[in-house]
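Q: Is it fine to ask for two folds in a single conversation?
A: Yes, each is treated on its own. Send the first.
Q: Here.
A: Result:
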Amino acid sequence: MKGLVYGGPGKRSWTDVPDARIEGPRDAVIRVDAVTICGTDLHILGGDVPEVEPGRVLGHEAVGTVVETGSAVAGLATGDRVLASCISACGICRFCREGAYGQCRGGGGWILGHLVDGVQSQYARIPFADLSTYKLPEQVSDESAVLLADILPTSYEVGVLNGKVRPGDTVVVVGAGPIGLAAIVTARLYSPAHIVVVDKAESRLQAAKMFGADTTVQVGAGDPLAAVRALTGGLGADVVMEAVGTPQTFELCTTLVRPGGHVANIGVHGKPATLHLEDLWIRNVTITTGLVDTYSTPKLLDMLVAGQLDLGHMVTHRFGLDEFDEAYDVFADPTRTGALKVVLTR
């Protein structure tokens, strides 16, 4: 079979790889029907995730059809159409028992496309398949479902819930890529008074407005701090979400938050960021970080079925499964291409 293989920083190839196969009794093998590329994959290619070894098949977001199950997999059968979660869960360790599946110590957590081969391939092995896949209703399309593998639960759990968004809040999202846009969609569920989005690309700010932002600020053309203070009587935002993963954007977030407010870091960081405790210690600011646990995926799936999540504009580019090179080029250059999410289908 073929897969998208990481060859070291800056190197990738769609090439022959060993066939996916059952390696343990709780594994399943799926035929990959729809798959997408994540900003984290770009961080890997940029050398920001050194745990990923050359030769690894990338990818952790897919919808597929079960073709084989291990002897201990319950609740799945050949032919089932499933969402493969970005997080694998053993279900037994302390963290899994607490619902913190991203911190699994039993061989799970974020392993797909990271510590084991991922899903940017024709077929994929899914460890702990009974707890790490979700059967999909017929009315949910592959294209919509694949957005629930990572970006929706990540933005919802690590941004909105960790940030404790409440009705009437002023919420700032720094970064209007797919994660930032998903943060807008899920923050709106809590009726904030204002959603402000900061980005350097005008095309992404226009997308942010389409997803529900009422104020946008283009870096270099506007002053984010002045815009936020104007909306809040000089106080600052109740919740600021970092959705990029650079030192500059994290430090910007800490300037935009009000005393007693919350900075929720969602972005993947590959370099150190300065924490200005000399300014923050006296302001009662809470800063949270997090890897998604995906405990919210069933609820998000229910909301998708009920029509409460509008994801129709999230996918901007579509490719065949053998067009990964072009898809990566498009996704990695959003200023030129206008790409949000790209989806590759069989």
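Q: Second one now.
A: Result:
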Amino acid sequence: MTHPTDIPRDPGAVALPALHTALRLAEEGLPVLPLREGKGPMGNCRACRKNVCGGRPNMKTPGPCACPAPCHAWAAATTDLSILTSAAWAPAWRQAAAVAYHPGGAGFTVVDLDNGDAVGWARRNLPATRTVATTRGEHWIYLGTMASPNAVRPGVDIKSAMSYARWLGPGTGPMAPLPDTVRALAAREPAAVRPASRPVTAAAPVGGGECRHRSPVYLERGIAMAEQRITGAPDGIHRTVYRTFLAVLSAHGRCGCLTEAHIKRLFTAAQGKGESLRHCEDAWSNAAAALGM
């Protein structure tokens, strides 16, 4: 197996179908999985839906669960060519819009810098390493593994153990050892609570609207149904999240009973399906604006 620092450098990879790219990467030792449109993993199969099978992500190593389908997000990542080319995975590859890999399974950590400010911070504070350009920022890849907390600071996520990153090419520069400065980020107070404050403010107007809850059970049932709608979506997660947020705001957002805890539950469900915190925030703000809140 190729050492994780020897990431394949095929300049024509972007022109290949997702499966061909995945096979090439797997042959080089990179555990891979298909991503659907919207950069999220494939939804669990019917037998594993809602993790009734026990949930492969509860385990500490990548690989397929007992079913043959590419279930459980990052945990489906594999280098086994027979699994990647199996009939059970064929529907996923037909839907695949991109390829992802499990950094921790390959022995390294991706510092996901989501915007120019985050990139500037990294250049001032982190040792230089292999860099991959993304749509809005950069991935900085280090040799070594760690936990994978999100929003360790504004615009910065860490993807390593029990996580996945989109394959965007081999990048440039040598891969440096994972520094203590990156490991220390995981111990800081997460910045994820910061973006949640704006949607909560938009979702809890001064009040005056009719409260249809009548009892806490009505609101609780509505939030639980919204969570289930998001977690059970087999595809089109962007659309599902927006429409679910719109429905929640329409039913529960005008009387002031919706709390930050409710919003966090919905955001957590969406992020569990692969949505970024920024996408959640945008969907919530857009839904509030559509309702004139």
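Q: Anything structural to flag on that second result?
A: Two points. The radius of gyration is 20 Å. Confidence is low (pLDDT under 50) at residues 1-16, 189-208.
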